[in-house]
Amino acid sequence: MIKKIIIAGILMISPFAGKCQQDTTGGYKLVWADEFNTNGAPDPANWKFETGFVRNNEDQLYQTQNAFCRNGKLIIEARKVHQPNPDYVPNSTNWKQKREFINYTSSSINTSGLHNFQYGRFIMRGRISTDAGLWPAFWTLGIDKPWPSNGEIDIMEYYRQKLLANIACGTSVPYKAKWYSNTKALNTFKANWSKKFHIWRMDWDTEAISLYVDDFLLNRVALKDLVNQDGSQFNPFMQPHYILLNLAIGGDNGGDPSATKFPKRYEVDYVRVYQKN
């Protein structure tokens, strides 16, 4: 079904409008989406790239080449390589510089500065690889304050045989988060679960943040409990957030990837954001 819809005052023809009526239950209306229908690089009007070694002592170097759109899907591909690290510094204590070689590459993209949203229903349909050492995520960060005082919402995160649904705010210790986390073990799902596409959803309003996979509630936290614990009374979930999609490898949480055969893919069918009038 093809319908006409209006997004940000622009009349658009939507090939997917007839497929997502259930996404609009509760008075939600589509305000932004990427269906990844154009082959090639992710749309620069929607996505920016992170590059280099970025966070969590992860094994991969992020680069632009590992994310591309093909046949209506965004593909983030993790690859095993062996190449010199151009930032290598002998005897350095900096984790980004002390690695002589790059052993893995991948991509991380985000909507920072392009599309930020405060409240709404955020949906991603995707398929994740669950092999050892892989750490895919669909998440958001607040636009103001340093991490974690800006607020983090992990709508989908996977590593070490479990799905995670996490929300983090700041504490009195810089760069130390207070986490509200729930996990679900992979072996509690049906066989071949990771071979199929699934739908991750966040419903975020002035009262609470609720995180789902395939309509199963993984985590729910009231906004009143998410004020930064640093005396500022700042609530990082009462500000706009931007969206991130990435496939990390190893690092602090991802586990050992050495037994995994690469390349591995994180495939995204679409990302959609709905809000109420």
TrEMBL record:
<protein>
    <submittedName>
        <fullName>Family 16 glycosylhydrolase</fullName>
    </submittedName>
</protein>
<dbReference type="GO" id="GO:0005975">
    <property type="term" value="P:carbohydrate metabolic process"/>
</dbReference>
<comment type="similarity">
    <text>Belongs to the glycosyl hydrolase 16 family.</text>
</comment>
<dbReference type="InterPro" id="IPR050546">
    <property type="entry name" value="Glycosyl_Hydrlase_16"/>
</dbReference>
<dbReference type="Pfam" id="PF00722">
    <property type="entry name" value="Glyco_hydro_16"/>
</dbReference>
<feature type="domain" description="GH16">
    <location>
        <begin position="14"/>
        <end position="277"/>
    </location>
</feature>
<dbReference type="InterPro" id="IPR000757">
    <property type="entry name" value="Beta-glucanase-like"/>
</dbReference>
<dbReference type="GO" id="GO:0004553">
    <property type="term" value="F:hydrolase activity, hydrolyzing O-glycosyl compounds"/>
</dbReference>
<dbReference type="InterPro" id="IPR013320">
    <property type="entry name" value="ConA-like_dom_sf"/>
</dbReference>
